[in-house]
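Contributing new records

If you add data, match the layout below exactly. Sequence lines come first and carry their own label; structure lines follow with theirs. Keep one chain per record. Anything else will be rejected by the validation script.
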Amino acid sequence: MSVLQDIRLAFRLFRRTPAFAGIALLSIALSVGAAAVVFAAIKSVLLDPLPYVRAAELVQFRTDFTNAEPSHGDWVFWNDIQELIRRTRTVQSIGIYRNAVFDLAGDPSTPPEALYGLLITANLFPTLGVSPMLGRNILPGEDQPGRTDEMILSYGLWIRRFNADRSVIGRNVKIDGQDCIVIGVMPPNFNFPLRRAAAHTPSPYVEFWAPLRITPAATSGGLGAVGRLRSGVSLIQAQQDLASISAALAREFPATNRDRTLRLAFLRDRAVGSAANPLWLLMAAALMFLLIGCANVANLLLARGLVRRREIAVRMAIGAGSARIVRQLLTESCVLAVLGGLGGYALTVAAWKILPAIAPVSIPRLAAARADWAILGFALLVALINGVLFGIAPALRAAGWTQAIAVRDFGLRGGTSGKQDRIRGSLVIAEVAVTLTLVVIGAQLMGSFMGLLRTDPGFQADRILASVILPSLARYKTPEQRGALYRRFLDSVRALPGVESAGTVDALPFSGENHGGWITANQAAVINSNAQISAEIDIVGGEYLRTMGVRLAAGRWFNDEEMRPSSDAAIIDDVAARRLWPGAAAIGKRMCVDCTPENPRNWKRVIGVVSSIRHAALDGPVPANVYFSAGALESAVFLVVRTNRPVYSSSRDLEKAIRRAIAAIDPNQPVFLSASMRTLIADSVADRRFIMSLLTVTGCLALLMSVAGVYGVTAYTTSRRTQEIGVRMALGATPGNVHTLIFRQGFLTVAVGLAFGLGLSLALMRTLRGTLVGLASGNPSHVWIAAALVSLTAAIACWLPARRATKIDPMCALRED
């Protein structure tokens, strides 16, 4: 008989037992689908090559600091990169970029719009090996001062704002009040950089690229830099070359380079960041769930094999050999697996129709994950492997029956052998152990994450809305003009209904903007920078600190006079006060901010001490924070508003009111974005929330499938013992005795699985403690809560068949064949 005949026979048998086929297919589809969903994410984020030419040669530069916190940043200084370009022997080209916001002028049909994009040097795209879909790249020399402004559009912006008009190339558009020529449109799905620098922007994608003009203003502050290694150069060789260049720069330019070192890493590694470990954890959880599904289907096939002993006896009696029986049963399990794999792929397609909408932008390319042909192949391959795994034991067991045993059992209803019970019991033990491991680790991570969400950020986030407004430098050329404009914005917003207070700041907490610096109260530390303290330094205006709900511990707030550029007033938080003047009052003391031997006179006077706040993350140490008010409105970026009711109930109305108030003052001034502080905080943990959500779903499905497996085995075993139970009850056993017997025997297997699972989960937590955030700070009580949950559900799964056994009528049981 051919394999095709085996397949036809398998379908015929499935039609005769639709309940069995349906349960088995559902188990396979869920378990394979879970693995395929996670594999699609891993493929998109970790395995697919970056969308650049010879992406394995691309590296990203960063700066490490010897005495700063944080100790490194994914950015470099202009002068360092220029020296690197001149001296390197291992990097053939380097492209430089900086974040930018452009104000795109509106027209009668569309309002003005603030766009998030990059200013880039002319060699960035050639370094990446990419070109526009329409038009051309930025040419050498076009990134020099005095040139006409040009810009390259993203594909999304071209479609949305310019209606996919191919004649846009060469057209002038108004950017920041000046003419700008559109010279190109990038291909669909192109995005650089892959990892968004800010925590929250209107678009997760860069919407334009324009020349980075080489001016003194452009060379200050942090810049991104990407390079391409020369052919045949390894990463280690490039790192050694860069280390020697950094050492030379520290010797030649001690005033600027003595405390910093240039580093590089592959662009893929820098883009992925810390997303790899959580994704691999999800994959491990999905594969464990797959094993639970495999054990469930194996138990179903074992039970079905016993029911088919008569059929197998007949086939063996008429000459079918063991190999023929094994082939038929394996064919049936593989057909089940393929059908289940197709169902799992269908679930994956459906999942990745939904998941991109909630995928965090902090995990690059995750939203682009799709269930393509590779995912279909993965689902079918995994399903087939599992088909062999869950089919081999029942097939070999059936083939092991001798003809004499089969004929002897022909007339029996189907008693179960001790070996069959041991196989099913072993599968149940494995299911329970794997399930407990998943639930325990998931509970630890979820408990840690929930604790993180309950962390006090140090300010009252529920009633705060922040808007980003960047006045055009072309229309507001001087700091005085920008300061006057922002003062009008503040006055107008304060007059809105429901607004209690408003203020401005140049770097809002959880916005992705951080302005670090150095502070000291010791004159000697100005010479020795290693003795200085790193701090977040913010320029605040209006009633910013009171709007944020920061508590004044000592001293006073800023007054309007202290917002003049010449003011030396400063407010510090209690962390900075303790570190600068331990055990002493800080009010009236003086501190030096970003002072160096070359610039030793930037001393400030402390007028107030406030409570500390978290600026970049909910976890980790709370940094020292210093607030200035000098020139606050001239350097304002964020306009912060406190309302008289929670923002989530009125944010859209308030956001619209703020936009109308800004437009009433300057119709050409767009609002870059408006977001509540709760939204910004939520964005800072969006990647962990996404991973936790998928892990929770996997754990819940694993628990349900494991309970179904325990129930199925216990119920099946009980049904095969109907006559035995009838005899026991006829001889005087009470329903309570029967219930205890069935429950004890069923739960004993569960208890063994719980013991193995508890040991496995504790071992894994110790192994992964240094790899996964949340395991090191886990609460031991979560382990016992998870174990109690699995035990309770398994106990219910054992209790239901035991309860049904007490309802057996002894007379009916004794009459059964």
